[in-house]
Amino acid sequence: MAKIKGQVKWFNESKGFGFITPADGSKDVFVHFSAIQGNGFKTLAEGQNVEFEIQDGQKGPAAVNAEQGMVVKKGVPALTGNFIQWRFGLLCVAITGSLIFLLGRIAWLQIISPDNLVKQEDMRSLREEPIEVPRGMIEDRNGKPLAVSVPVEAVWADPKTVMEKGGVLVNSRWQALASALHVPLSEIAARIHSNERGRFIYLARQLDPQQAQYIDKLNIPGIALRDESRRFYPAGRVGANLIGFTNIDDQGIEGIEKSFNQQLTGKEGERLVRKDRYGHVVENITENPASPAHNIQLSIDERLQTVTEDALSNAVSWNKAESGAAVVIDVQTGEVLAMANYPTFNPNNRDNAKLDDFRNRAISDTFEPGSTVKPMVVMTALQQGIVRPDSVIDTHPFTLDGHHIRDVGYYPQLTLTGVLQKSSDTGVSRLSLAMPVQNIWDTYHKFGFGVPTAIGLTGESRGLLPVRQRWGELDRATFAFGYGLMVTPLQLAHVYATIGSFGISRPLSITRVDPPVEGQRVMPEEIVHEVEHMMESVALPGGGGVKAAVHGYRVAVKTGTAKKIGPDGKYVDQYIAYTAGVAPASNPRYALVVGHQFDIAKEGYVNLLPVQHKRSKDPGDSAEMMQARRAFLDAGHYQPLRDTLCQLLKALAPSALLDIGCGEGYYTAGFAAVVAEKGGETWGLDVSKVAIRYAAKRYREIKFCVASSHRLPFADESLDTIVRIFAPCKAEELARVVKRGGVVVTATPGPRHLMQLKGLIYQDIVLHSEEVEAMPGFTLQQTLQPGWMMNLRGDEAAALLQMTPFAWRARPEVRDALKAETAFSCETDFVEGKPHAHGHRIKAGGNCGGDQQPETVAMNFWGIFLSRPAETLQHHTSAEEYQQNKSHPVVPFQHNLAGEQAKAPADKRGNGFNDAKDQTGAQCFRKFRFMQCGTLADGSGEGIHGHAESEQESCGEIHSYASVGDIHIHANHPQLYDGACLWSRLLRTLRRTCHVNLRSGYNEYVDMYISACGRNRLLPNDGRNLNIFF
């Protein structure tokens, strides 16, 4: 037991030990706090007298070493008296060892391995920086920029620096940054915290310089700017599908931008620099200069591209098409002057664009070319000697392998020109079957089908030109009119550029080239020239491409329509329509292909009403009128009229019927049911798009189209029957589309039609005429006058008013009164006429003989004489006068006026003749003309003179004189151009002399006329008149 008594010398409470000076004067005793606590002390203070005991060998928190006079903590070695000396020696050894290590390390780094330190230093301070090259410009052929690069800035962050400066703080500067970048501050914080030890992340790209300058002024630690560029397209949507666009790193990913990416980007340079800890360049060490980018000058003309795209967009929109493409090529150089697509997009803002909008359909979409290949078939037949240019082809319908090969119209025989003009499938099929199919295949291949055009655009399709070991007769026939092969619009344009260069195939180019451009001849020039001349007839009256005609400009075109192939490999009710051609035809400079894909099943109809033929934005009946019409007709109030018309049609049994002015389809549906009994086809036509939409949605089995009744979108002689109920039409247009022996059924209001309804609106009621409308070129065969009384409710009477033209004149109180009626009776009165096509009915001055004259009759179509047998002709004079003139069998222009008998004036509808006397009573037949249908006869009654007065100038451009044995025709150049290809159809039984007034610059029209008529005998030209006998 050790006993300690003394005074506390010092005590460190935080460290838990101290020293006590014993009272007996011995050495100071080291005391641990645990020993003090064991004797009841909580703490010790300096100078405090203490006394306590600790047993020797105590196994507690502390023990007393009596010999050393110390209290030590258990497990701590006892301190000896030389503790201080030992500690000092240990410290010296440690310092000496450290110095030796440092000197050795210095020697290692400086002498033995100095390069490693330099390498580490370079890794920390040296940086390789790219020397960026501005992307090259894309220009049109005139140097107008289509794609340029503009300077922009990128905002980036150094996450490590940001975190060292306190991270993303919720203060005004960080809030301003978030607002400038249009992103939440939380999103910025999340991106930085996602990689806190990183040194570079983008916060925003391609900011405007003004926006970047504002961010730079915020002076936020760890936020910096970086220069970059952004692609800008000055023309916007113009040429977007062709030019393409770049990604955010300025690399081309579509169109020209992708195809010419290497030339546009050049090659970046590099420079090696040394930077300090703040990222500032303190030394430029080395530099590898950049290779500059190249500008690309396209062959595209931006102005022509704009016009082409506008025209294509209008055509696609009005035809309710899904897509379209157009290509214009310079025939002499092979340069692509325009390449338009629809749909398109704005490359400067692609946010709402669909992936399908980016496609360049002119090079990627493939389709069966249809009738556009027929000129190549005719060329092949001429080259193989199968036919001559003046050959006549049997075009009767025929059957191959159970499939009918027929044309839209009925043509027993056609010349080669007629085959192209009428787009005769039977004609080219017979040509194809008359020669090995390999001949046609070779022609297609030489003209460019089945191989890429090598224009250099990424994504171009090569199309499909099938290679078969065996060809069936049906395959050979359809191959001749464009089925069984696939082409792109650009390939088809290349073909017509070859036609325009008269057989020389030149390589296509999307970049500007300088003439001359060499090419390869693929077809003899004289053959291509002959066929190109034939193609001119397609755009002339009677051809399938009349809408492609340009007034005063000669064009050679060919149209083609083909069904689309569905995903299952079968044809679907979707169509591709293309028109291809060259212009001007006399010396072609441009080749053009334009087409669109439309889906009848999607909207139920096609829009064939060109914009220039509309008199208002939405012509025809409105939606309100259609709703009222449907409600009234569905109630069955006009059912008797529809039943009557259907009975007439059952007797006619037409195979192709057109309902003009079909409205919402009520009558058309009834007609279609009758026509379908014999397997026929029914079309409905109306100028109102609203009406056609109503019809197409309800009657899916009928084909509907939006079109003008004055410009019917049907081929010549392609319809058996036309029905028109209250629909205005042109008689000559009806005569054009109706086949020989076809019928036009007309329903017009009778005198008492809706008398009670008109009585509510008009004070003086004007009755409709009792006479049937005169239709030149037709003979009235039957007239019906159905009528009945309708008992209507008030709402039905209001609907009847709304569907009639009276609605425009009805006052609001009349409408309200009708709706309030519980019952309203109204009378119907109709006149139905069934005129036979190409007959004649003229009422002269009220006297009309009933005799028939089955002689040859010269009829007037398009200002040209045609001869056809007159099955029924009501003479223009009395029966007695007819007997007196039997010796004159020729009845030109549908009328034979005998002597001085017909002096009664005609009414304004042209049902009679103008008075033929002047004020003195003498005959003045030269000064008067027969209204609409013809002209006056001279005093002897042998012929007719047609001389219009000044106010009738538009109707009197063509002056004719006809007598027994010969006809003289005098025309100026517009009439010669419009009707030249039809002159070969003049009366065959008469000797004719044609006088053409030659004017400066119109020699090509005369050449065209001679070619169309034939060169049987050409008399010397005196410089003013050209006499041709044939």
Give the neighbour order of strands across the main sheet. 26-29-28-27-30-31-35-32
Report the helical percentage: 25-40%
Unreliable residue stretches? 57-81, 609-617, 836-1030
- In CATH terms, what is the architecture of the largest domain? 3-Layer(aba) Sandwich
Average per-residue pLDDT, rounded, comes to: 74
Transmembrane segments: 88-108
Organism: Beauveria bassiana D1-5
Protein name: Peptidoglycan synthase FtsI
GO molecular function: carboxypeptidase activity; nucleic acid binding; penicillin binding; peptidoglycan glycosyltransferase activity
Provide an overview of this structure:
- This protein is an alpha+beta fold and 1030 residues long.
- It has five domains: 78 residues, Nucleic acid-binding proteins (OB fold (Dihydrolipoamide Acetyltransferase, E2P)), CATH 2.40.50.140; 169 residues, Alpha-Beta Complex (Penicillin-binding protein 2a (Domain 2)); 293 residues, DD-peptidase/beta-lactamase superfamily (Beta-lactamase, 3-Layer(aba) Sandwich), CATH 3.40.710.10; 221 residues, Rossmann fold (3-Layer(aba) Sandwich), CATH 3.40.50.150; 185 residues, no CATH class.
- 28% of the residues lie in helices and 25% in strands.
- The chain contains 31 helices and 45 strands.
- The strands form 13 sheets. An eight-stranded mixed sheet has the order 26-29-28-27-30-31-35-32, with helices on both faces. Strands 8, 9, 10, 11 and 14 form a five-stranded mixed sheet that branches. A five-stranded antiparallel sheet has the order 16-15-25-24-23, sandwiched between helices.
